[in-house]
Design brief:
- The complex is a heterodimer of chains A (115) and B (112).
- Chain A is an all-beta fold and 115 residues long.
- In chain A, a hairpin with a 5-residue loop joins strand 5 and strand 6.
- The relative contact order of chain A is 0.34.
- In chain B, a hairpin with a 4-residue loop joins strand 8 and strand 9.
- Classes of the chains: A mainly beta (115), B mainly beta (112).
Chain lengths: 115, 112
């Protein structure tokens, strides 16, 4: 089956620094990748959708300058949280879909803690 | 507006008993319907989906779900619960394209 990985699985950073999270499709070409944010005991909130080679489409209320998304290749998308603050602490999950199927495959998530 | 409701935040069931996790939705058209399971600090794992056809869908780990169009429901069921089924369960709909709408999740606890 299709596998999506995320790196790192956990990251702790200081307030004001930036942190990058990688999302990779390991065995298929991901034409579209999605980034979600999950608060404790809450549902997933779609942050943005990115298509390979084009700018990401952000959901309403998500700051594009705060959460930079790059989808430079068919197997890699990155989410950079810039000038992180404690309120950015959350569980970030990516998902990917490819050409052969519009099924979405979810990564294992990244736990971000901003101190 | 598209929405998915999981009316129960928490469901407790004794091991060996049948379990049901409820989901209702309000979306336009004929959406695809999904159930995912999430274990602590992990991503979502696909359980099953309904696209068309038989209203009873069978999925992974012995789970099944029943689609009811008139009630716009897609309840998750399992005949005999295991302690290892304890996790967070999400219902999701995909009305068109790649956009998913998730419910708020139901925490299932199976009591030994």
């Amino acid at each position: 089956g299709a596998v999506v990985s995320q790196h790192p699985s956990r990251v702790i950073c200081k307030s004001g620094t930036s942190v990058k999270i990688e999302c990779r499709s390991l065995d298929f070409q991901a034409t579209t990748m999605f980034w979600y944010r999950q608060f404790p005991k809450k549902s997933l909130m779609l942050m943005a959708t990115s298509n390979e080679g084009s700018k990401a489409t952000y959901e309403q209320g998500v700051e594009k300058d705060k959460f930079l998304i790059n989808h430079a290749s068919l197997t890699l998308s990155t989410l950079t949280v810039t000038s992180a603050h404690p309120e950015d602490s959350s569980f970030y999950i990516c998902s990917a879909s490819g050409r052969e199927s519009d099924e979405q495959y979810f990564g294992p998530g990244t736990r971000l803690t901003v101190t | 507006a598209q929405s998915v409701a999981q009316p129960e935040d928490q469901v407790n069931v004794a091991e060996g008993n049948p379990l049901t996790v409820k989901c209702t939705y309000s979306v336009s058209g004929n959406p695809y319907l999904f159930w995912y399971v999430q274990y602590p600090n992990r991503g979502l794992q696909f359980l099953l989906k309904y696209i068309t056809g038989d209203n009873l869908v069978k999925g992974s780990y012995g789970f099944e779900a029943e689609f009811n169009k008139s009630q716009t429901s897609f309840h998750l069921k399992k005949p005999s619960a295991l302690v290892s089924d304890s996790a967070l369960y999400f219902c999701a709909v995909r009305p068109f394209g790649n956009q998913f709408y998730f419910g708020t999740g139901t925490s299932l606890t199976v009591i030994p």
